[in-house]
Specification:
The complex is a heterodimer of chains A (151) and B (364). Chain A is an alpha+beta fold and 151 residues long. Chain A is 38% helix and 20% strand. In chain B, helix 2 packs across helix 3 and helix 4 (65-71) packs across helix 9. Classes of the chains: A alpha+beta (151), B alpha/beta (364).
């Protein structure tokens, strides 16, 4: 062990081993373009960050630049998902993880509201059905406990 | 093995998956298939109606690395794959049955799904002698031919099945050949790599399930979605290459600063694969990010193409010329040097590939 300890391993305090490539800046320019497009046409854009060749620190740099805005949400659907608006309104970061906590999708959405946050008709219908069943059950329970109040 | 009659949408709803969860599932699938990010709704519409295909997986002369890779898939997980995407009716390593019961499962799946099942093969096939590799007393060649006969398509997983792989390396003692050397009357998709990226294996299956068609293929029969771009062109170190900044050794200043590994033998310019974006180990990293050049393991004959640490003999001085020369040569290890003058090549070899376009022109 002493021999190994004698090996000098220099640590670069400047963080030169960053591998930062400038990709984050390019992506920010694309986001700015998508924001203009959203304002002019109302059309949303999505950037798939898993398809972009990031270096070791590019992702941190991008997320640092985007920051955190007013809105954030956590979903539990087939694993946890986190959605937060960046400090630039209309620019959202959407991260999906599977049931094992592994990241399966990571996107920037330039939109007024990410679709994953919206309630979908099929789920509303399913929810309404369950609520109706609850109401029927509740009424029956109410009837059996308070028979004198039923007409 | 399991019920194939219900659609994927019905199956997920039975499991209590909400529409929001389904959309998330489709977003991950679209990302895995390298589709434009806005394609998730189209994927959702297709997957809603998709039915799980029967899959028979045969393993021949291989190291089980491809199956090891598959089991590390995280998008989808192998559980998703087995329960939602496909009905895996035969796989030596993953199935519980063995011996006669396993072979009976294969024959039943072939009979029940004749003309519709997918055949996945990993490993090369020995032609030197049938006894070199057998399963239940059946030679690899015979099992491949009889199972492929009723398949809708064949997916050759790993460089061994796709191109012969390490068993085919000189002097090729078993007479190893690829699947496409034997099967010529079925659509074949080559998913090369040693091993292939887990999500690329599952991605090809997901593509078939989503669109009920085979993906667009390149000249080597590989899906363009994953093999359409060179490692070099998608490498995060590419800007350093463009600036002429190279690591000269594995521990010099350039290596510490994450510069291009081209001079250390990186085969990124001639290797086509998705490592640079999909990465390995749940997206943690990939060889170049770890500081080692690409071996080009997804390319034919990569094992016999010279040293892993010898730089490609492509000039680096003029990027546009470099791309032109490499492109014209078909971007294969051997072919990349075809257009180069022999003497210049020799000097490049001695100097680790630092020959310039001018050098080539002077000597040609």
């Amino acid at each position: 062990m002493n021999v190994l300890d004698d090996i000098n391993i220099p640590v670069d305090p400047s963080g030169a081993l960053s591998g930062e490539t400038g990709n984050a800046l390019i992506l920010l320019q694309e986001i700015a373009h998508a924001m203009r497009h959203l304002l002019e046409t109302g059309e949303s854009r999505t950037l798939d960050l898993l398809a972009i060749p990031f270096g070791p620190t590019d992702e941190d740099r991008l997320l640092s630049e985007l920051g955190q805005g007013e809105v954030s949400a956590t979903l539990n659907a087939l694993g946890e998902s986190r959605v937060w608006e960046s400090r630039y309104s209309g620019v959202w970061v959407v991260e999906h993880r599977n049931l094992d906590g592994q990241r399966v999708a990571f996107q920037i959405e330039i939109t007024r509201m990410p679709e994953i946050l919206c309630a979908h008709s099929a789920d509303i219908e399913s929810g309404l059905k369950r609520l109706n069943e609850t109401l029927i059950t509740g009424r029956q329970g109410f009837t059996s406990e308070n028979p004198q109040e039923e007409p | 093995m399991t019920d194939n009659s219900s659609t994927l949408g019905e199956s997920l709803r039975r499991q209590g998956v909400t529409r929001r969860g389904f959309l998330k599932f489709c977003t991950a699938t679209a990302s895995m298939l390298a589709l434009p990010a806005g394609m998730a709704p189209a994927v959702a519409a297709a997957l809603e109606k998709a039915r799980r295909p029967s899959v028979i997986w045969l393993s021949f002369q291989e190291c089980t690395g491809c199956t090891e890779s598959l089991t590390r898939s995280h998008a989808p997980t192998v559980e998703n794959l087995l329960f939602d995407y496909i009905s895996l009716d035969y796989h030596h390593t993953l199935q519980a049955a063995s011996g006669a019961a396993a072979e009976a499962a294969r024959e039943k799946a072939m009979h029940d799904n004749a003309g519709k099942y997918l055949l996945v093969v990993d490993g090369s096939i020995p032609l030197g002698h049938p006894g070199y590799s057998t399963i239940a007393g059946i030679s690899n060649l015979q099992m491949l031919q009889e199972t492929a006969a009723g398949a809708a398509a064949v997916i050759a997983v790993g460089t061994c099945a796709a191109f012969g792989g390490l068993p085919k390396a000189a002097p090729n003692p078993t007479g190893a050949v690829s699947v496409s050397d034997i099967i010529t009357d079925k659509p074949i998709i080559n998913v090369s790599g040693c091993p292939p990226i887990p999500s690329v294996i599952t991605g090809v299956l997901a593509h078939y399930l989503t669109f009920d068609t085979l993906p667009e293929l390149d000249q080597y029969g590989r899906p363009m979605a994953f093999f359409g771009t060179s490692i070099h062109d998608r490498c995060y170190r590419r800007p350093f290459y463009d600036k002429g900044l190279f690591a000269e050794t594995f521990d010099d200043e350039g290596a510490r600063k994450g510069w291009c590994l081209y001079k250390l033998g990186c085969k990124g310019p001639m290797a086509y694969n998705a490592c640079a974006t999909m990465k390995w180990n749940q997206g943690t990293s990939w060889p170049v990010e770890s500081g080692h050049g690409c071996l080009g393991c997804s390319e034919p004959s990569f094992w016999d193409a010279g040293g892993f640490y010898k730089a490609l003999s492509i000039p680096t001085g003029d990027i546009s010329r470099t791309v032109g020369i490499a492109g014209a040569a078909g971007l294969a290890i051997g072919a990349a040097a075809v257009g180069l003058n022999r003497a210049a090549k020799s000097r490049a070899k001695q100097q680790h590939g630092t020959v310039t376009v001018d050098d080539l022109e002077k000597t040609s």
